[in-house]
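quick one before i forget lol
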Amino acid sequence: MSETKMIKNKDTKKLAKAKTPSLPGSEVKKLNMSKTRAKKIKHSYQVKDAENSLLLKLKDGDVVIEMFPDSAPNHVARIKELVRAEFYNGLKFHRVIDGFMAQTGCPYGTGTGGSGKKLKAEFNTRPHKRGTVSMARSMMPDSADSQFFICFADCDWLNGQYTVWGEVTSGMEFVDKIKRGAGQNGMVDNPDEIISLSVIADL
């Protein structure tokens, strides 16, 4: 199987080339939320489904991500599991390419790690456009783990080849301020980080 071409520049490397070493498992937190409270939170952030929406706190402001359990149910379930275990809090945006995407989700901040659980691809018809949230992977289709990326612009050449599981619906201007990397591979020196990532229904 030939490697998927990531961007139009043939020299640009793929989104994730990690062998993804396993990390010690952590107990997933199960947080209860009354229907009334969840409704208030949902209204506050103007989301369709608070259980399937995330609040991403960045240095410049809050970002709301609405997830697509209908298109990528297993990825959405795993992302929520990791979020509730506070896996993403403090992780770096280690690879950021201007005009393309910002990638995070590696516990080592290098693009070489993950949670230790690979996910079977759930490629779908949702397009990679500005604000799309999609899973990073190696050239193997079923190699996605915890790393994901947010598109700065439309990236049609990725359509159908990476699992789209969400979309930024508020705060994209704060995503735009994530520190960019250098060179064609976009590795970032002293990168920005995820302050926190939460399921909105749990707030």
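fyi The longest strand covers residues 61-67.
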